[in-house]
Amino acid sequence: VNSRSDRPAASDPVGTSKDHRDGPAIVVLEDAEAVAAEGAHRVRDSMARAVAARGSFRLALAGGSTPKKLYARLADEAHGDVVDWTPVQMFFGDERCVPPQHADSNFGMVKAILLDAIDIPGANVHRMRGEAPDLAQEATAYARGLLRPLDLALLGIGIDGHTASLFPRSDVLDETISACALVDTPTPGTKRLTLTLPVFLETREILFLVTGAEKAQILRDVVGGPRRPQDLPAQSVARRAGPVTIVCDRAAAALLYASP
Ligand code: 6PG
To answer: How many angstroms does the Cα of residue 48 sit away from the middle of ligand 1?
Structure first.
């Protein structure tokens, strides 16, 4: 198997806080398919552990394009009847402010690839209503319905260093109370709903999926670069105190082990 688990050499000095000394665990695999397979395996493993320990599995899903292959794998496995989705409470890390039928909807994407293929009680799927007439109120309602702490949050990293919809230099990065917020995106006129840093910091396990050469520089900056929490929100989650695993392909990992 072409895989290795390793820790990159951080280019900043080792922190004094033991919290981040080791950094995230990094798993480098051959390509995006292998990343999806590993991701699906880890989701199922996390699910089994949570259900055994607590009787339920609180999962937050990522949007964007990278996790689509993982969701397809979970859907395939469901056809074999291996996964019992009944104890799963499915949340979303973020959502674009569009209706669920819209091509940009994270829920729409997950529904088409995963939800339509599995047997999960409708009440267990907690979507952010991106089409809500009062989006600030929707954020408040979503925060109220969130089951905390989450067991697992799947996340991606944007080339600007965002994760979920925590964008660089956004006011939401200073949020310490609300679990869900309405935010502006760097694209003028577009808004999103997102879970906030306190939620991701308390989540039992974080799993980032990162693929493609275009992510190589940002992955290096997030994992081993100087701490820049306002510029690189993904860094605050990736280098948090609790368990974090980054599963990436070789292309995205290309600069991780290069000398500065
Ligand atoms: C979204 C996300 C977002 C995503 C990154 C990476 O709704 O877009 O949740 O944070 O994970 O932008 O996106 P890609 O996987 O498309 O590169």
So the answer is: 26
